[in-house]
Amino acid sequence: MPNFKTLDDLGDIAGKVALVRVDLNLPMQGGRASDVTRVEAVKPTILELADKGAKILLFAHFGRPKGQRNSTMSTSYVQDDVEDVLGKEVMYISEVSGPVVEQSIGILRNGDIGLLDNVRFWPGEEANDPEFAKAIAAHGDFYVNDAFSAAHRAHASTEGLARLLPAYAGRAMEIELKALDAALGNPEQPVAAVVGGAKVSTKLDVLENLVGKVQHLIIGGGMANTFLAARGVDVGKSLCEHDLTDTANRIMDSADHAGCTVHLPYDVIVAKEFAANPPSVRTCNVHEVAEDEMILDVGPQAVEALGDVLKTCRTLVWNGPLGAFEIEPFDTATVALAKTAAALTEGGSLTSVAGGGDTVAALAHAGVKDDFTFVSTAGGAFLEWMEGKDLPGVAALTA
Ligand code: ADP
Ligand code: MG
User: So what's the pLDDT on residue 226?
Assistant: First the structure.
């Protein structure tokens, strides 16, 4: 387990100013957030700090203003949603450093919360400018990072501040780091990884990292077609990156050397058009795909075999759906394997960790999102972690 401080390590913080990095980049619809999951995630940290009497300053980005003030990307748009979720008033502050911030801190009572404007309005944020970070750090007594989703960026509010002030992981960050460690850092073996989704090219580093770490690599989705093609299978009109078949072969070779079994589908669901329940849909062996057919999901026999693989494993890490799950019946394999994983998790034999935008949607669609051990909503940061990269925001907390 990487060594980092948590809120448990805070002493008496009554009256102290906490600079807290959170993810408030909420999806908006008609002026209000359409999903407040990200606020729910940081609520325990904020309320715990408030209970202990700290004055809390929330730092967040909102959209991509590229280093300029932009009235359409002010964090004031999410103030009401943050207040609703926290059940507490929040004071909007139009700056991130300087006299306005200092005056606001003077107004805040112990346990009060200030919401600073979009930290990306200032070019020093994304440049991780030490002077910018220093100007912010001057207002605080300590720093808390509760935004794992931004930890793959070395920005002033995600990395720079951690080097200038005593730094702590918030509760959401702590939970995420522990779950990820249990999945790939220091997992119980055997470990299975499911890697699916559209393209090999977006997940090359993920695949290369995983072959050295897991005993079973289950490849599904569009990227399985590239691996099948590399093995000489004619995949018809399927999504396939023919220029990456050498790469696929190289990955399968290094898996062999590392003692990692690569599982590719041997039966598949195909159709002539990508539409809901098309008349042309059928199940066949991978060697029977016609020239005008597309592979859109893993077949039932392969899914059953994959479920048996999971039964022999102690740990599962999953990124990417097994098929084009947005359209029926091409969600079948993803839903079936997700349910197996959920049941094994519930039974206590499997630790299951999943992440990725479409993966989270697919698990929700399967009705098992809450039955996995941990589901990360962190997107880019989750993928970089699956690639085995050091995340600067995490590294700064563990330095
Ligand atoms: P995540 O967001 O979880 O990382 P990806 O973005 O890599 O996942 O992949 C999800 C996309 O892959 C979905 O839009 C899905 O429709 C697509 N996909 C999965 N299997 C296939 C397939 N066989 N053919 C075409 N697209 C597929
Ligand atoms: Mg995606």
Answer: 97
Residue 223 Cα, ligand 2 centroid: separation in angstroms? 13
Instruction: Judge whether 203 counts as a catalytic residue.
Output: no
Which H or E run contains 351? Answer: strand 351-355
| Residues 296-348 pLDDT 10s | 999 999 999 999 999 999 999 999 999 999 999 999 999 999 999 999 999 99
Burial class (CB within 10 angstroms; exposed 0-12, middle 13-18, buried 19+) of 301: middle
List CB-based neighbours of ion ligand 2 within 5 Å.
357-358
Query: Ligand 1 atom 9: the closest Cα is on which residue?
Result: 197
Using a 6 Å CB cutoff, which residues line ligand 1? 196-198, 202, 221-222, 239, 295-296, 319-321, 323-324, 326, 356-359
Q: Which domains does the chain possess?
A: 7-174 (3.40.50.1260), 187-386 (3.40.50.1260)
Residue 205 near residue 329 (C-beta atoms within 8 A): no
